[in-house]
Amino acid sequence: MAKLDPEEAQKRIDRISEIFSEIVSHAETLSQLRCPYRNRNDHCTAEFRCRNQRAPAVEGTLHGCSHDGNFDYRNAWESRPLEHERIKEKVRDIRKHAARRRNQVRHKK
Ligand code: SF4
Question: Which residue has the least CA distance to atom 4 on ligand 1?
Answer without folding.
Answer: 44
